[in-house]
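Below is a filled-in request sheet from our internal design queue. Each sheet records the structural input a requester submitted and the sequence that came back. We keep these sheets so that new team members can see what a complete request looks like end to end.

REQUESTER: design group, bay 2
PRIORITY: normal
MODE: inverse folding
CHAIN LENGTH: 75
BACKBONE (tokenized):
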């Protein structure tokens, strides 16, 4: 399986977090569309099917992440 470069994943996570805040503030369709695009890219880059799993997988691939740390997973 191909793995995205950590710098790319970090950038995508930052973009998604920023867009999520912008969408919460104004809810524009342009921001929502860009957020959906970044979410899709994160899913493809991490081999997942939903944004929550993609964010967890991406964060686990960043430098300094502990592979055994699943504290981000909900029960």
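RETURNED SEQUENCE:
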């Amino acid at each position: 399986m191909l793995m995205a470069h950590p710098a790319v994943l970090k950038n995508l996570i930052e973009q998604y977090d920023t867009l999520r805040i912008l969408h919460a503030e104004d809810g524009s369709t342009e921001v929502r569309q860009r957020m959906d695009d970044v979410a899709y890219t994160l899913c493809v880059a991490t081999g997942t099917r939903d944004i929550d799993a993609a964010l967890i997988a991406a964060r686990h691939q960043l430098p300094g992440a502990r592979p055994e740390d699943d504290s981000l997973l909900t029960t």
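SHEET NOTES:
- The chain has three helices and no strands.
- The first helix runs from residue 6 to 26.
FILED BY: M.R.
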